[in-house]
Prior knowledge:
By secondary structure, the protein is mainly alpha-helical. It has helices spanning 24-27, 54-65, 73-80, 89-104, 106-109, 129-145, 149-161, 174-204; strands at 32-34, 40-42, 71-72, 112-115, 118-121.
Amino acid sequence: xxxxxxxxxxxxxxxxxxxxxxxxxxxxxxxxxxxxxxxxxxxxxxxxxxxxxxxxxxxxxxxxxxxxxxxxxxxxxxxxxxxxxxxxxxxxxxxxxxxxxxxxxxxxxxxxxxxxxxxxxxxxxxxxxxxxxxxxxxxxxxxxxxxxxxxxxxxxxxxxxxxxxxxxxxxxxxxxxxxxxxxxxxxxxxxxxxxxxxxxxxxxxx
Length: 206
């Protein structure tokens, strides 16, 4: 079984040596990626890009779930083919990566990196909705502990606004759904409960 460690996306964001906060806004970049709902790819010119091939969608989703961490080829093979890979699956996976890079545009493609034993997708906190969600939830949690109710409510509201539906909604990958979607849904429920707590304190003081 793969994906055994339920480590948050953001906790892995420094594994490959990049920071979690980019200067995208200062550069005018428009790249955005999302897994909190159907797979979202906003590419070079701000237009949404549809990755039509189901297995290429699954491949990209797997890299985003493990953002900034090298995912071994055998792990990707297991996810993409749901533990039933064809012969020469590793070679086929390389072909999928090449095609995916062509589909997503130069900016996103430049973030999909080849390593000796796998692949990784480098993203900053403000480029992937799951990373941003987790960062805002941490802000909200810290504000709750400090009894800063308005700040907590605001951070958690912004976190919840990132959701566009069920996580990985258009990804046919049972392994990812079992190990990632459930964790994200639990984090969303916790954020809803924490925001309700903050809003209750605000109403009691108004």
